[in-house]
Design goal:
The longest helix is centred in the N-terminal third of the chain and has 32 residues, at about 55-85. α3 (about 55-85) packs antiparallel against α5 (about 95-120) and α3 (about 55-85) crosses α9. This protein has helices at about 1-15, 20-40, 55-85, 85-90, 95-120, 135-160, 160-180, 190-195, 200-215, 220-245. The protein has one domain (about 1-40, about 50-245). It is built from ten helices and no strands. It is globular, with a radius of gyration of 18 Å. By secondary structure, the protein is an all-alpha fold.
Length: about 250
């Protein structure tokens, strides 16, 4: 596993060396969302009994930040390596496709978790956030960021230029995260859009993660964990299949 640990170390250094851009900037962005939405809606919206809107908003922002950064880490690393040509040094190394996948996935998960912790710590100044089920939160965090990290690997393999990668993020990742209940409960939506939201896997990530803090959720937490785990297995399996075949990397 020397190759795996070396590639993982390289991927960790890649985002840590520019932490101002990869860690601090997403935290600031999440804080801006919190300040704006809490200021506008704090006195007008209450989703769960005894829980302020600002407190309701925090878990969603934490998970959204983790998901977006997990995707950005693996996808940007691969597209940069492909465009600059240094991906060849990874491909000629004696690395199995499982080691390749694991290193990129773990580095993206770590970046997502670091950003999520940063957002969570920064929100201490705004609200007292309860923590009812920490092990549940850990499981949802790893599975959810793992899904977006694997999607990032797929996007990085598929894209040949940054425009294509931006399209993948703008037309798939952003809509899925913003329309997943980060800023609202789906019970506030009309019946049609409530039903539509149940087809969005990111909704289950957000809702299950929020349940770990409050013990309140829009759907059964067990269902959220089941959907997220199934998506992780399916997307990881598909990514491994593409890597094994060398899709747009070796061929």
């Amino acid at each position: 596993m020397t190759g795996f640990s070396t590639l993982l170390y390289k991927e960790l250094l890649r985002f840590w060396k520019v932490a101002f851009q990869t860690i601090l900037a997403p935290i600031v962005t999440a804080m801006l969302y919190l300040l704006i939405f809490s200021h506008v809606l704090e006195e007008r919206v209450q989703v769960y009994p005894g829980i302020s809107y600002t407190t309701f908003l925090v878990p969603g922002l934490v998970m959204m930040s983790m998901l977006q950064n997990a995707f950005a880490n693996s996808s940007s690393s691969l597209i940069q390596s492909k465009i600059t040509g240094n991906i060849v040094f990874v491909l000629v190394a004696p690395l199995s496709y499982l080691e390749f996948f694991s290193a990129y996935l773990m580095a993206a998960v770590i970046r997502g978790v670091v950003v999520g912790i940063g957002v969570g710590v920064a929100t201490v100044w705004f609200t007292d956030l309860p923590l009812m089920h920490p092990l549940w939160l850990l499981a949802l965090t790893i599975l959810s960021t793992g899904i977006l990290a694997a999607l990032g690997i797929i996007a990085g393999m598929w894209a040949d230029k940054f425009d294509q990668l931006a399209a993948f993020q703008n037309f798939l990742i952003m809509p899925l995260t913003f329309l997943s209940g980060v800023f609202y409960s789906i019970h506030s939506l009309p019946p049609f859009w409530q039903a539509t939201s149940h087809w969005n896997p990111v909704f289950y990530m957000i809702d299950g993660f929020r349940w770990g803090f409050f013990g309140h959720a829009d759907v059964a937490p067990g269902l959220s964990l089941l959907v997220v785990a199934a998506c992780f297995v399916a997307i990881s399996g598909f990514t491994l299949l593409l890597l094994k075949r060398g899709y747009k990397l070796r061929h």
